[in-house]
Specification:
Largest sheet: 3 strands, antiparallel
Helix content: 40-55%
Number of strands: 6
CATH topology of the largest domain: Hemagglutinin Ectodomain, Chain B
Number of domains: 2
CATH superfamily of the largest domain: GrpE nucleotide exchange factor, coiled-coil domain
CATH class of the largest domain: Alpha Beta
Structural class: alpha+beta
Shape: elongated
Number of helices: 2
Order of helices and strands: HHEEEEEE
CATH architecture of the largest domain: Alpha-Beta Complex
Strand content: 15-25%
Strand order of the largest sheet: 1-4-5
């Protein structure tokens, strides 16, 4: 009985596989071994191509990241220039507070417009129902003036860019007077 090679019974090195399945071709080379060599060569080439693809993709990702960063910073530099001019104007002896306030307000508008051009929006929270996906509750405050569970005040603005939250709005949430909270420690 002739045994065929398998994972359990491999052909030992040095033994010819031709006795079980194939005979050498006219060139004297075993066709199975020639096919194996061809498959191995294709594997090595595909592996090298894949490695080159990974390196190229990483370079392209880095280039996109660098170009994006340059674009954003290029748009912010005029704001920085305007801040420097405001600081120089503030150092002058005859600068009044109102003109300085007006200048800082213009800089704020310039910066808001710049970030808005990138799709950044402020989250307006006051008077709206508390939403943990958009708001970070700093505390609760008892009140009858605002509906229970709605935002009374906003301590820090929140921002989102399209559908992604950049920073939640830090808020104080209204609760009915006398209602218990989950965060209140129990007294024993």
């Amino acid at each position: 009985m002739s045994e065929t090679p398998s994972a359990e019974n491999p052909i030992p090195p040095g033994e010819n596989a031709s006795s079980s399945s194939s005979a050498p071709d006219a060139s004297g080379q075993d066709p199975v071994m020639a096919q194996l060599a061809e498959v191995q060569e294709r594997y090595v080439r595909l592996y090298a191509d894949f490695e080159n693809f990974k390196k190229r993709a990483a370079r392209e990702r880095d280039e996109v990241r660098r170009a994006t960063t340059e674009s954003v910073l290029g748009r912010l530099l005029p704001v920085l220039d305007t801040f420097e001019m405001a600081m120089q104007a503030a150092a002058l002896p005859n600068t009044n507070l109102e003109s300085l306030k007006a200048g800082v307000s213009m800089i704020q508008g310039q910066l808001r417009n710049t970030v808005a051009d990138y799709g950044v929006e402020e989250i307006d929270a006051v008077g709206k129902p508390f939403d943990p996906a958009l708001h970070e509750a700093l505390s609760q405050q008892e009140t009858t003036e605002v509906t229970d569970g709605h935002v009374i005040s906003q301590n820090r603005k929140g921002y989102r860019m399209k559908d992604r939250l950049l920073r939640p709005a830090a808020v104080v949430v209204a609760r009915k007077p006398g209602s218990a909270t989950e965060n209140t420690p129990s007294q024993s």
